[in-house]
Prior knowledge:
The protein is of the alpha+beta class and 1187 residues long.
Amino acid sequence: MWVHPEEVLQAGALWITERANPYFILQKRKGHGDGRGGLAGLLVGTLDVVLDSSARVAPYRILYQTPDSLIYWIIAHGCSRKEITEHWEWLEQNLLQTLSIFENENDITTFVKGKVQGIIAEYNKNHDVKEDDDTDKFKEAICTFRKLFGMPEEEKLVNYYSCSYWKGHVPRQGWLYLSINHICFYSYLLGKEAKLVIRWADITQLEKSATLLLPDAVKVSTRVAEHVFSVFLNINETFKLMEQLANIAMRQLLDNEGFEQDRSLPKLKRKTPKKVSALKRDLDARAKSERYRALFRLPKDEKLDGHTGCTLWTPFNKMHILGQMFVSTNYICFTSKEETLCSLIIPLREVTIVEKNRMTFLFANLKDRDFLVQRISDFLQQTTSKIYFERETTGSVNSSDDEVRAKEFLKEQAWKNHITEYGQGVCMYRTEKTKDLVLKGIPENMRGELWLLFSGAINEMATHPGYYEDLVEKSMGKYNLATEEIERDLHRSLPEHPAFQNEMGIAALRRVLTAYAFRNPNIGYCQAMNIVTSVLLLYAKEEEAFWLLVALCERMLPDYYNTRVVGALVDQGVFEELAREYVPELYDCMQDLGVISTISLSWFLTLFLSVMPFESAVVVVDCFFYEGIKVIFQLALSVLHANIHQLLGAKDDGEAMTVLGRYLDSVSNKDSTLPPIPHLHSLLTDDGDPHPEVDIFKLVRSSYEKFGSIRADVIEQMRFKQRLRVIQTIEDTTKRNVVRTIVTETAFSIDELEELYVLFKAEHLTSCYWGGTGGSNPTERHDPSLPYLEQYRIDLEQFRGLFSLLFPWAPVNGAHADPLALRFFRLLDHNGDSLINFREFISGLSVLCHGDLTEKLKLLYKMHVIPGKCVCVLFTERERSPEGNLYSLYAKLHTPDYRHYLRLWNQGTKNKLDNMKDLPKLNQSQFIELCKTLYNMFSEDAQEQELYHATATVTSLLLEMGEVGKLFCHSKDQEEQDQDDPEEAKSSWPARDGGTKPGGVFQQRGQGEGKEESQARPCGPAKRDGRGEQLSAMEDIKLEDSSPKDTGTSSSMLISDDETKDDTSMSSYSVLSGGSHELDDKLHCEDINDDTVLVRSENRPHGGGNGPHGEGGPHGRNGGLPHSTSIDKDWAITFEQFLASVLTEQALVLYFEKPVEVAARITNAKNVRKVGCSLLSASDYEISLSG
């Protein structure tokens, strides 16, 4: 390709000149091509890889040089000799003569550079090449990545890094390529190549490791191997990116959220590093925005625009506090350098004219003040006018205890003073004093307001006015699985509280839960949501409770309430790690008893609301909304620590749970103004001595003192590690459940089923990565909430790929494999949804690999008995289009006509006793299709000739059976015709004495044989390379030549199997008879090429014949055949006849009874399907593949 001219200092270094003229030089890189170059070539190749040279991608180049100059300019490079030669010839034909006219060398240089740049501009214009943000160096890396690993354009490269890969005890220096779906490594050292390809979705562990030998290394673990990479220039950047990409992969497995690139990123700046991609900047910006939203509890769609160092003037202590200022589309935020000193959130919707504002914020020491002011002004123009959010505060609950009322009053005063000094609402200065007030307890009448504020729910509520009402209205009267579960749990939600002992409270709870289920169908409804929501409704209005639930489920407790409670399982793993670190003496004991997994789920899912007295648990919720999940971890560790001696003495998990249950029941809140509420958990405990009361505020304070060092960012790191483990464990559990479900239905071993499941799942994931070509969206049909067997399903295009790799009947010729795969898929698709699950897939494969002869033939028979008429559709690789691909063919023939048959067959497989007599008969059109399938199946088989001989014999026999069967089926009709036309009867019926009159049916077949034979010729195999002459010589041989006729006896009765096999005229290219005495009712097929697919469409009207045809001599090779409008609809054979005929031919019996090497096929499929296409594996390659 032409490139923008770049200066080259040394033209001869590491390059070989192949052509030259006064102005241009064509060069080839040393060591490239034909494995030549000796030691120098090996060294050059190694240097190219280690130094990331452009020559890896383009080993040919053209240089421009004026005769008297030592400076060279590269103007073109190419991947192949053909490409570079085309450029060279164009230069010689179009530029050499022109350049000789110039006198000034500078003018020549300017002209050449301008001409090349003009060619590039014209090419970009004609080919609609859009400018992108990737640098030239990165574009080279993308080309290298795709070339080395066979990746399609849909696989986006994010970044690549130089590193060493430890294969055994030897490090291999090379390049690590990180794409959206794969981690790849390539190394070339002195002639030895090493490749590694791993899916992110297959990684079970990703961690930085530090040893004496490898101080900075990254260990990547899959289910089958561990891989260690080291010697990174910037290991922290690399590891963060790897974490992020692994997280995206886990998210795809979890809830099927695909990766979408953010197109709204700012353009590249001039000082951007050479090796950077727009995708990498996108991911970096995404990671920063996620941390920003988590830090300030902002809505999920908020994007960070930038941040800068500054100081904030705090009026409450009259100081300038050093920290960071963050600016996003709708917010300005600040956090102090010292973490807990001060933080601030300013919604731009609250910003108005400064003089009229209630609060003024002063930021100083800004590095780029003018730019920052301009950005804030731009955002303010996009922001709607201020939305006033006023909340009516409810009065305190009356209590007879004057001391409790006095404490509550003092709390309220403390908070009012704090609000006066530090500000009210979203713009409050949040300091260490705010935290202290929260730990002492929020007043009852302020709890709902402060929960909204600290959780960030107030922002989403203020920016979505009327959203909740619309959602309630839309969800009214709608019923689904989520609403049924909600109705079942409504009366189990704090049943001991008076507010939920009447229909008003129950109705409000129903509306909130149903509205959320409709907002987020991925979660819908999960048990424990009812308990949390009922508590939210006690302190907040209905709409406020809804937005608090949104904040809880989508931001503060991510993935907690989906169908598999993944978030809670992740945090359970984090809790185990924290317990190992902070209470090591107790950890081993708890692991042996299996208590941690039990307690963590019940404690975390309900925020202790289900295990503590209500008035104490709400204090935990206060702290949770302010500090987040770290409070729950701290409190859980504190409870374990307080009971360490009793737990160490526990003999079993029941005793340990009793100890913890009694302790939590004794946690009290003496400052509560609420009337005592019976606690459901306490009613279920034993009748032993109650545990001494534990004050909730002391417990919370103690948890901060002992375990307050736990940081939120450390928890996020632990969550990532555990998320990999949990999701892969869930995937493994799914695989085991699927295998266990179907292992009794098939002869495959458990190990083989697991391997096949991995291949089946990988095919689905590959289509999700790179998109399907069949018109169905793979991401829409992967739903982790479905039953195990339905979670992964494949369509026709994906089945076709697996069919060619795993199914023994798949012909080597791809054009022949397509129609067979189509028929097979149609048969396996029992419910007619154009998708098959793993059970359906295995049911078909099992018959082919482990079924007996009868089962295999029955399957083959069923594949062709679906109603329809044979039509020919060209299906070539070069002519394939979105409208003409295999999926669209399936869609055209996918009509309800055959679903009755599929249901019948499905019932037959369930009963395991399929009655042969219940199978529909095969008509003439279907029989012809069956014959074609047999010929295609035997293509390039070792016993190809013998199989074609046997097939021709069986076909002739079945044709005769169909004729005889038709005579008996229609004897009554023919008798009536005898009375009307006795002469016709004489020429049409066999004699009563068992002989055949001269005008009998077999004689008529002989007369029409020429036409029938020529019509049926396409059913045989098409021309193959190297056999064209043989085919041409035998093209006009007729079927009757191979089976001598007798006027009195059927040919099928006279000729023996041995005679048929010995007859030299019956070659593999013999053709089939149409097999009908009604000579007009024939199936007409054009000559069919190797790349033709035969599919079915609706039946055409049946046309009658008008008398006998002539014998019909040889026809031309171009298919100049007589046309026929219909087939003989009365001709039919049964499965018993088909089976009996096949059993007469030993070659066919041996073929269908041939054992299948399942393990070898699976291994081959795994090697081919690693990255969705074949990888080169020359003898000197060292290819490592994982996952």
